[in-house]
Amino acid sequence: MGTLEESIRQHPFLKGMSAEHFKILLESATYADFKPDEVIFREGDPANRFYLIESGKVELESRKQDRPPVHIQTIGAGDVLGWSWLYPPYYWNFEAKALEATKAIFFYGTRLREKCDEDPRFGLELMKRMSAVMLQRLQATRKQLLEVTTHG
Questions:
Q1: What is the domain extent for residue 64?
Q2: What is the pTM of this model?
Q3: What is the pLDDT of residues 71-88, one digit of tens each?
Q4: Which of 33, 62, 104, 110 fits a disulfide with 51 by CB distance 3.0 to 4.6 angstroms?
């Protein structure tokens, strides 16, 4: 494994980011490891971070009281985990659980929100990138709903 900086530079989510904005991200980053079946965050808890997945698999689920969890999507290397830290009211919209040993880069979202306020260009750049993640998750949820209604 290379340095944290190399790992971040190689992640598809940050491709094409300016050196100035990349430096801001690097200052708020560290490595994170998750064991199989470890819950990374729970739906409804405060959202204050996000992850770039380097290896492993993470399951995203939505839970409703007194009902079994609904599988939304499985993500892995090259994916982004967590966008709720950037959008009020800053609570997780899904539960995330490692399905296998997972390595990720952890970013302090609270610090990055402050940087977004200080540098609107940086904020816009992150919003654009996170919006693409949100759209992809919305499409995965839509596909899941269509499969349930078609086959169920």
A1: 4-151
A2: 0.89
A3: 888 999 999 999 899 889
A4: 104
